[in-house]
What we know:
By secondary structure, the chain is an alpha/beta fold. It is about 45% helix and about 15% strand. The chain folds into two domains: about 5-170 and about 210-240, Rossmann fold, CATH 3.40.50; about 170-210 and about 245-315, Rossmann fold. The strands form four sheets. Strands 3-2-1-4-5-7 form a six-stranded parallel beta sheet, with helices on both faces. A three-stranded parallel beta sheet has the order 6-8-12. The longest helix has 21 residues, at about 85-105.
Amino acid sequence: MEESIIIIGSNGQIGTELATALRLKYGESRVVTSDIRQPITASPGPFEIVNVLDKEALQSLFEKYRPTQVYLLAAVLSAVGEQQPKMAWDLNMTGLLNVLDLSVEYGVNKVFWPSSIAVFGPHSPKEETPQYCVMDPNTVYGLSKQAGERWCEYYFNKYGLDVRSIRYPGLISWKAAPGGGTTDYAIHIFHEALRKGSYTCFLSADTRLPMLYMEDAIRGTLQLMDAPSEKLTIRSSYNLTGPSFTPSDLSEAIKQHIPEFSIDYAENDPRQAIADGWPSSINDEYARNDWGWKPQFDLAALTAEMISNLKQHLETT
């Protein structure tokens, strides 16, 4: 059976790069991208306007394309979610349930839904945070991701729906602008370094967070989706990580390429409290053992890639 793939929420940071990777793998016509508005940059392949909260419109999408795989990426992120918590909960939760219900109804083979390190909280172990531990998220984003993990596992156990998920750490990419995430300082800093030679960081110098270069994130996602079902022991969401670093670490890495770069730090930003509740490093041994996960980019490598690629990108836009 030929693959027919739908990406819901394809305009975002992950979706733009995932769509490219999936179209290279399966062909442009087999991957349908969708979002609530047209993408800024047109891409090859079919695109549909759809709101994940509009179940009738979503059903029409499933009816039209009869997907074998669905990637649900539509979400409100951490910092934005704190400004509009009920809206964030509704989009993140109702959207997921709509997709899970329709995937059961239409016999979808595999569903991918991203979770986040935001599922962890102040009482979770900070260092080498394990797959299983106390999870007491204190943001609506984290609450919705924790609940979403439980729903994914429930639909697998009750309906046999093959849902797969990754708890992404901070994702770093030069192709998409930073969104509303707490870890997005690690993208914005590169834009400002190249444009102005300086950056005011909203997190403190010593705030260590787990990160992942987008190329690794996409590769890991495709590896998980290709893994034989019987090899997967996690049906909530897999821990996954690359390097962990602080804003200070990152600024020093940038100075290796832009010696005149300078950084200072804002005080009393609400995103600091969010970051303080998150892990500083992640243990992802289940992903490594179950489906052979291993990141390729450390801090030095991702810094070099970001500066080289973003510099060219900014010069042509």
